[in-house]
Design goal:
Blueprint: E1 2-8, E2 13-19, E3 24-28, H1 34-43, E4 47-52, H2 64-71, E5 75-78, H3 88-91, E6 109-111, E7 115-119, E8 122-128, E9 137-141, E10 146-150, E11 153-154, E12 157-158, H4 168-179, E13 187-190, E14 196-197, H5 198-204
Cofactor: Zn(2+)
Pfam families: Lactamase_B
Keywords: Hydrolase, Metal-binding, Zinc
Length: about 210
């Protein structure tokens, strides 16, 4: 499996496209700029099979409907956030001046249990990692040594918890019990900013040291 990080929109939210030897791909967190995503997909001659969301905040969902409709593929989100896609007060877009309310149609499928998961021909571990939002999840591709962590863990930082139903203590617990138990050489693909590793965050992240 290969992957690419594509920062999108004014908040430079990282979308990810993971793809395999059969040229199938998953699209993760298509936040904006549908054209940029489609250019890469078409350049690589990939066939999208699903959109999977780490969570449903506005900066991660802006291109969900255009991409879904163009490729005729399903969308997955955690059941805790099944109403967030269509509600700008829940997904956060109504809280920021200068941002038009951002919404998408409801997801086609909901994550309801964590563990081994297969979507669109890709298998991975689904971890519930709430705290930044109640339905935040992370996708661990063990064979490739990467975890796509959304806004749970960043290089040198952690997700904000001042949006609706954020919880700092729950976030820290998620990071320590789910992410920091992964092999230390695992690459962390965050929702914003550069790629990091579990080892780097264990050793240098000021929000995690001393917990």
């Amino acid at each position: 499996m290969e992957w690419i990080q594509i920062p999108l929109g004014p908040l430079q939210t990282n979308a990810y496209i993971v793809y395999n030897d059969e040229q199938n791909c998953l699209i993760i967190d298509p936040g904006e700029e549908e054209t940029k995503l489609r250019q890469f997909i078409e350049q690589k001659k990939l066939t999208p099979t699903a959109i999977i969301l780490t969570h449903a905040h506005f900066d991660h969902i802006g291109a969900v409907d255009p991409i879904r409709d163009h490729y005729k593929i399903p969308v997955y989100v955690h059941e805790e956030e099944k109403k967030w896609l269509s509600d700008s007060s829940k997904n956060g877009s109504s809280f920021f001046q200068g941002i038009q309310p951002i919404t998408a149609r409801d997801a086609d499928y909901l994550y309801d249990t964590q563990g081994e998961c297969t979507i669109g021909g890709f298998s991975f571990q689904l971890f519930n990692t709430p705290g930044h939002s109640p339905g935040s999840v992370s996708f661990y591709f063990k064979q490739s040594g990467v975890v796509i962590a959304g806004d749970t863990l960043f290089q040198g930082s952690i997700g904000r918890t001042d949006l609706p139903r954020g919880n700092h203590d729950v976030l820290i617990k998620s990071i320590h019990q789910k992410l920091l138990t992964l092999p230390e050489d695992t690459y962390v693909l965050p929702g914003h900013g550069p790629v990091t590793t579990i080892s780097q965050e264990m050793n240098t992240n000021p929000f995690l040291n001393g917990f």
